[in-house]
Specification:
heterodimer, A: alpha/beta, 7-stranded mixed sheet, 10 helices, B: mainly alpha, 12 helices
């Protein structure tokens, strides 16, 4: 018989909004139920308003950890990516959302965590420490992330260059990264529009890449970002 | 549903019928008014540092929130009391689940929550048969559902923790709620909660002033032998004296029986505290949560009630019964 192992919640001892803003947040029964209800609603709403096609679903690893990276041009992106996740993974996959936008006020933070299951990514003065905490969580807790390495929504629909933060998360680890390409979300709901228009959305999942042999330093991070950017770009132009 | 049951469940206009309840409320208000004066006098007399002052005020503010939440439902009626205990059980279980890591097993965790709700339903219905039946049924259900994942690794831990949590927060706290099925529930519950809280305070103050030898330094470094004995003597005296008022005219209101009752309150109260401290030490945490400044989590406050409620319930049950003069199976009976 194995030794008993007790593992308190990693966010134990944090209070209220401090807990919501923590990247160590772990949700309990109520949180899970809330998220399942929310996702059920989002899924149904998306099915009603948009025509979504998912290509390459088999490329999604069966269990966490993994990271999904995609091009970003619409608030719909994170919702469409989540529709590719099976229900059993939903509570373990966290969209990384801009801390300064989605975690500034307690109400926004409650929405981002309670509904979207998001974790904060502090863009300004985030430095090594914030990303390193996320990296440790990926390695030690049953967690997966979805994130947009461009760092912000594209205002033109064109793919911008990937920042090397994604490299800081996965360089030198065996965590698979799934390149994803979203087509049609910009037309459905570009930045600035309030409501989505009905249109055809295609989500393409590429072959997962592992960066175990890439050094965990600046050159390695940049190599990871370049590789993934090319993969996502290639997914976006399947004919070429 | 007969008139007596309706009155018990929702009859807030009878809240102050019992002399003990009236006396308690007068004393409570007096104390809550006096405490700020005492803290202020301590500051003026230079007897306390600013940090100490801050801690005292934080504790006082927490009590100002706690006391209405505890006393309010009891005054409003049995239905409110049962609902409040159910909410407390669920919130305490939440703290337990997060501290032990049980929350990572949603099927078992859901069963504990369902078990607490089932106990609450049986209490609200005044159906003692179901109240008793839930425990043996629950062990079967938890053991069966834990097979579902087909992961034998950690099976014993999952099942045992699930059952432990259910017994602590469903059954032990369920007995506290079951008192609400007695026509005299307001006096009994206020008496019980008051004596258990006083027991904590006696142990703390006697320990601070006279305590030298530690009671169980590895479990709870601040508890002393003198504190434990002091609480035993003082709580027994107070519980017996107040018990004479609460249980006047019933078989338990005999001196020896009241003293045994007081001893039960003090011993089980302290054991509940120590048992939950042991769990915290085993987990390596200091407080269950940070909900209330100066108190920690809900469980840090209510741990002393865990074993006291069933022990007192069954001692009273042995001598005279609890809730026997009230109609059983209010909702399910024909």
């Amino acid at each position: 018989m194995d030794e008993w192992e007790y593992k308190p919640a990693q966010d134990l001892g944090l209070r209220g909004s401090e807990r919501l803003r923590s990247v160590k947040r772990e949700s309990g029964l109520l949180g899970r139920i809330g998220q399942h209800l929310w996702w059920w609603w989002v899924r149904s709403a998306l099915r009603l308003t948009e025509r979504i096609e998912i290509i390459g679903q088999d490329n999604l690893p069966a269990s966490v950890p993994f990271v999904m990276v995609a091009n970003h041009s619409s608030h719909l992106d994170v919702l469409v990516l989540a529709t590719a996740l099976p229900a059993r993974l939903r509570n373990h996959v966290f969209p990384l959302a801009a801390g300064d936008t989605f975690f500034e006020t307690p109400v926004m933070a409650a929405f981002a965590t309670g509904m979207m299951n998001a974790l904060p990514m502090w863009r300004k003065n985030c430095g090594h420490h914030a990303i390193d905490t996320l990296r440790q969580r990926l390695l030690n807790e049953p967690s997966g992330y979805t994130l947009f390495p461009e760092g912000t929504r594209s205002r033109t629909g064109q793919l911008a260059s990937f920042r090397h933060g994604i490299g800081m998360l996965v360089a030198g680890t065996s965590v698979p990264v799934v390149p994803c390409h979203l087509q049609g979300t910009f037309d459905a709901m570009p930045p600035g529009s309030k409501w989505p228009r009905r249109s055809r959305i295609v989500l393409r999942l590429g072959t997962p890449a592992v960066f175990a042999s890439v050094p965990n330093d600046r050159s390695g991070w940049q190599a990871v970002a370049r590789t993934l950017e090319e993969s996502v770009r290639a997914l976006g132009s399947p004919g070429a | 549903m007969d008139e007596a049951t309706k009155q018990r469940l929702w009859g807030a206009d009878h809240a102050l019928d019992a002399p003990f309840v009236r006396g308690f409320l007068v004393a409570l208000v007096a104390i809550l008014v006096l405490v700020p004066v005492v803290i202020w006098v301590m500051r003026v007399a230079g007897k306390s540092t600013p940090e100490h002052q801050g801690e005292l005020w934080a504790r006082y503010r927490s009590w100002l929130i706690f006391i209405p939440l505890m006393v309010g439902p009891i005054l409003l009626g049995a239905a409110w009391t049962i609902a409040a205990v159910a909410l407390m059980s669920l919130l305490c279980y939440r703290e337990f689940a997060r501290a032990t890591g049980m929350f990572r097993h949603p099927p078992i965790s859901s069963l504990v929550v369902l078990g607490i709700l089932a106990v609450t339903a049986s209490v609200a219905d005044h159906w003692y048969g179901l109240f008793v039946a839930i425990t043996p049924l629950q062990i079967g259900v938890i053991a069966a559902v834990a097979i579902g994942a087909d992961q034998p690794k950690g099976y014993i831990q999952r099942v045992a923790l699930g059952m432990f949590a259910f017994l602590l927060f469903g059954i032990c706290f369920g007995h506290l709620a079951y008192f609400a099925n007695d026509s005299n529930f307001r006096s009994m519950l206020i008496w019980l909660v008051l004596c258990v809280e006083l027991n904590d305070i006696f142990a703390y103050t006697v320990g601070k002033t006279l305590g030298k030898r530690k009671l169980a330094p590895n479990t709870s470094p601040n508890k002393t032998l003198a504190g434990a004995i002091g609480a035993l003597v003082l709580t027994t005296a107070v519980a017996a004296a107040l018990g004479a008022l609460v249980f006047a005219g019933t078989p338990v209101a005999a001196p020896l029986r009241l003293i045994v009752l007081g001893l039960i309150v003090s011993v089980t109260g302290q054991l509940g505290d120590l048992a939950l401290s042991s769990i915290k030490r085993d987990l390596g945490i200091k407080d269950w949560a940070t909900t209330f400044p100066g108190h920690g989590g809900l469980l840090d406050r209510f741990n002393s009630l865990l074993f006291a409620a069933p022990a007192v319930f069954h001692y009273l049950g042995y001598i005279q019964g609890v809730g026997l003069n009230q109609a059983p199976r209010i909702f399910t009976g024909s």
